[in-house]
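Researcher: Please translate sequence to structure tokens.
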Amino acid sequence: MHCLIIQPIHTRGLEILKAAGVEPREASAPDMETISREIPDAVAAITRNAGLNGPAIQAASNLQVIGNHGTGYDPIDVEYATANGIPIIYTPHANVRSVAEHAISQMLLIAKRGREADRSMRSGNYDYRYSRDFIELTGKTLGIVGFGRIGRQTAEIARTAFDMRVLVYSPSIGSEDIVAAGFEACGELDILLSEADVISLHQRLTDDTRHVFNATRLKNMKAGAILVNTARGALIDPDALIEAVNSGHLRGAAMDVFEPEPLPLGHPLIDCDGIILSPHIGGATEEALVRTAEQTAGQVVDVLQGRKPEFLVNPEVWSTSRGRQS
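Model: Translation complete:
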């Protein structure tokens, strides 16, 4: 048996596969055309942000499980996998703390103008300290959009470390749960945008949330606000974001996720100096990578050995899944 590793995972995950008699084989490239050629004999596949599309799944007649290394699984064709009886496992807890810390770090970087200060020092401009506005996060209002595990952790850090007022907009979470967690529920996104000094995005990407932050929504944000996205790039209209930053309406923005990924050279976001870019590293700390690889590989092994894994994207397929019927 072998498991196709579509994108690299921590060696700890590979060790777990090998110990269970599953040979990990790294794909030569993560594009779906290559994957379709290399996946046919695999009984399992582990992917990260490259996902796994319908044609690649179709090419894998022996595939018994798809391992999603992380919490966001929208790049996987869940509908096709489910229709063909293939369980998809994921790791909703493993990278929560790391992504939340990254979101906070991006807020601080923009508030303190850390990137610009570094460039000024390297160019000999020590007087930069007199020329720009530097602000504290303490006491500011943070707007959390999406109150899943990462959104909740980000809110906790902001409240505990910086005494921030936290407003939460999350249609899938009841206001009573938000209030019970110690935060303020906000039923209207535009109201949250008008009050928050910092907005942090933590929603899943769906048809309803794609480009939910369009030109109108960005204009509704408080003047001088900060926008941080560690969730999914397509939540934001990039052209509208560039306009909001270049016009000075927003103090700045930070993007750790993009549409597409990797972001191609020459993309307009790259030329917008007011937007801090990072290559999807929120969950890429050493600690998170170990946890995620262990949980992904462990659940892949569970499925291959007939045990129901802890975290299934499509639990409805378990009783009739391809592997259990073979």
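Researcher: Any highlights?
Model: The chain is about 35% helix and 15% strand.
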